[in-house]
Specification:
The complex is a heterodimer of chains A (136) and B (252).
Chain A lengths: L21 H8 L13 E2 L16 H13 L10 H5 L48
Chain B lengths: L10 E10 L17 E5 L2 E9 L7 H17 L3 E2 L4 E3 L2 H9 L3 H11 L2 E10 L1 H11 L1 H10 L9 H29 L3 E6 L7 E10 L3 H15 L3 E9 L9
Antiparallel strand pairs in B: 1-3, 1-4, 1-5, 2-3, 6-8, 6-9, 7-8
The chains are: A mainly alpha (136), B alpha+beta (252).
Chain lengths: 136, 252
């Protein structure tokens, strides 16, 4: 293994997980690489392992609702949450907020059949607050 | 040597990747089912293969991991064009005549181009609450819609909610463009090539495969570390690699 997980220069803000779990490996190799003409293949190992549904979701009501819910879950004032101005701090505004963008693109992946345990990536990141990315 | 008309029906050749034809002693590796990896050479290129039993349950984690570890080991030792997971050919003849010979020149060119380079996968995600707070503050209509829709029960499909989500996603998209540019500006001096990948999710910023020359990897990592520190309040950077050049092996 030559993954340089131990070498940390600077403050270690850059997360350097070792891609050891099934999810990481799937992400690296799935549907990538040279494709041998399907008619020349005798069989395909592992196709049942993965049902991947990678389609581009053009801006839809569902997608918008997802954004709305995330925004509404924000805890800016209540329950001792930070004040908005405090949260935003001195961040510069982009000034581009008026530009109308195109379609929102997203990829939904449904990885099924991963019944094995130990599927989690063993992130050795220092950032303990990082939550699992479920939607990515 | 299998006879042309007497192929053992129960085994095939699992193909891991295409490498330059080994000059000296080939790398000893074990692949799926602990089978020894063999090299089937044709002129300047060779396929790394192992014999595999065809009568088997559907693919499993162990097979995926074995495929990955063989390709990783090849990438560490030489240049490799990964072959798509799950590719099995009938026999040696088929590997030569159906895979290596027809694409020999293309494989040789790709291998020459990728020599001395490694792929890294970079994922940038937003610190979601932080960036959504920016979004709410930057746009009065969003703030107002949020105030009006907050008390709606979850799962409601109110027109105001749809409008809110639409506005938020547009503002986020502009932010993404700006922030992606910042990240790309940092990466491009080190990157030979890049492939942008689709990402989903509210916190998605950028998903990128980058091809970096071996001797520039340290600089590349240092540059990203500095960037990660500068952006850490609102962006997380995650770097995986070096891995084999899956994104640059010519998917066709």
């Amino acid at each position: 293994m030559t993954v340089q997980t131990t070498q940390r220069r600077g403050g270690g803000y850059l997360e350097r997980p070792a891609p050891s779990g099934l999810a990481d490996v799937l992400e690296i190799i799935l549907d990538k690489g040279i494709v041998i003409d399907i008619y020349l293949r005798v069989s395909l190992v592992g196709i049942e392992l993965l049902t991947i549904d990678a389609r581009i979701v053009i801006a839809s009501v569902d997608t918008y609702l997802r954004f709305a819910e995330a925004t509404n879950r924000l805890d800016l004032y209540e329950h001792g949450g930070k004040d908005l101005t405090e949260v935003v701090g001195d961040l510069q505004e982009s000034g581009a907020a008026k530009k109308v963008g195109g379609a929102v693109k997203g990829v939904k992946k449904a990885i099924k059949g991963g019944s094995d345990d130990d599927d989690r990536s063993s992130s050795r990141s220092r950032s303990s607050r990082r939550r699992q990315t479920e939607d990515a | 040597m299998p006879e042309a008309h007497e192929r053992a029906p129960e085994t095939g050749y699992y193909v891991y990747g295409v490498v330059p034809a080994p000059g000296g002693s080939p790398l000893p590796l074990q692949g799926i089912d602990q089978a020894d990896v063999e090299y089937v050479a044709y002129e300047e290129v060779a396929a790394a293969v192992s014999v595999i039993a065809l009568d088997r349950p559907p693919g499993r984690r162990a097979e995926l991991m074995a495929h990955n570890s063989v390709v990783d080991a090849l990438a560490n030792a030489t240049t490799v064009l990964p072959v798509k997971f799950g590719s099995i050919m009938a026999d040696r003849d088929s590997v030569i005549h159906d895979l290596l010979a027809p694409s020999h020149d293309r494989f040789a060119d790709l291998l020459a181009n990728l020599a001395g380079c490694r792929q890294f996968n970079l994922r940038a995600t937003y610190v979601q609450d932080q960036v959504l707070a920016e979004v709410v503050q930057s746009n009065p209509e969003i703030a107002e819609l949020r105030r009006r829709t907050r008390e709606l029960p979850e799962g409601t499909m109110h027109p105001d909610l749809v409008r809110l989500g639409e506005l938020v996603s547009r503002v986020l998209e502009d932010k993404r463009d700006d922030d992606a540019r910042t990240i790309l500006d940092t990466i491009r001096p080190f990157a030979l090539d890049e492939a942008r990948r689709q990402g989903g999710g509210v916190d998605h910023l950028l998903d990128l495969a980058v091809l970096v020359e071996d001797e520039r990897i340290a600089e590349f990592e240092d540059g990203l570390e500095q960037l990660a520190e500068a952006l850490h309040e609102r962006v997380r950077l995650r770097l995986v690699g070096p891995v084999a050049p899956y994104e640059f092996a010519g998917a066709g």
